Amino acid sequence: MKEGQSIEKEALNKQGQHWENTFTKKTNMFGVEPSIPAQKAAKLFKKEGKKKILELGGGQGRDTIFFAQNGFEVYVLDYCESGVEAINKKAEEMGLSELINASCHDVRDSLPFADEVFDCCYSHMLYCMALTTSELEFLSDEVKRVLKPGGFNVYTARNTNDSDYGTGIHRGEDMYEVGGFIVHFFSKEKVEHLAKGFKIVDIDEFDEGSLPRKLFQVTLKKK
C-alpha cells in the first residue's frame, strides 16, 4: 500500500468522530423540516403501496419523523450515537416510538437485517459521505439484499457539478475534504455503476441549501 493511501484511509475513518462532535454541538444541524427528497420519496412510496422503510444515515431525524408522521414504519440507522439518541427522543416526545426503530450502525459493515424485509430504502446524502467506491458497491449489494423484489432504493448524493467538487483536500477517487467534511462527489457514471441488480427509474438533479449544493436524487427499483 502506498503511503498516501494509508493517510487517506485514516482521514476517512476520522469522519465518524467529526460528525459526532458536530451533532453534539448542533442539535438540529439540518433544521426540523423534512427535506425535499424525503417528500418526493414519500409520494412515490405511498403511490406504490410501500409501508416499511429502511433509512440510512438518518442524522438527527428530520426525515425519519416525517416518514413516521405519514404512517410509514421506519427502521433508521446512523453511525453517530448522538444522532440516534436525538431521533429516539423526538420519536418519544411526538408519540411516534411505535413507528420508529433507531439504532447505531456503520454502513461499511453488513446491514443488521435478514434478506428481503424492507419495501424501500431511503438515504439523504449518506452515499456521498467518506465512503470509497468499493464500500459503496458493498452497501449497494446489502441494500439490494434487504429489499423485497420490486422494492425501491432512493438516495441523494452531491454530484460533480457542485461548486465544491475539486476543491479542498483531495482524499482519493472523487472525494474532497471541504470545511472538515469529506464528500464523495457522484457522476452519472458512478450512479450507473452502483445500480447493478436494480432498474434505474430516475436520476433527478436538484439544488439544496444556500450555497447551493448540487445533488442527484436517484430512484432505483430492485429487479
From TrEMBL:
Methyltransferase domain ranges (all copies): 53-151
Gene3D superfamilies to which the protein is assigned, alphabetical: Vaccinia Virus protein VP39
UniProt protein name: Methyltransferase domain-containing protein
Molecular function GO labels: methyltransferase activity
Keywords: Methyltransferase, Transferase
Pfam family, one: Methyltransf_25
Listed GO biological process terms: methylation
InterPro entries noted in UniProt: Methyltransf_25, SAM-dependent_MTases_sf
Stored SUPFAM superfamilies: S-adenosyl-L-methionine-dependent methyltransferases
Source organism, top-level taxon: Bacteria
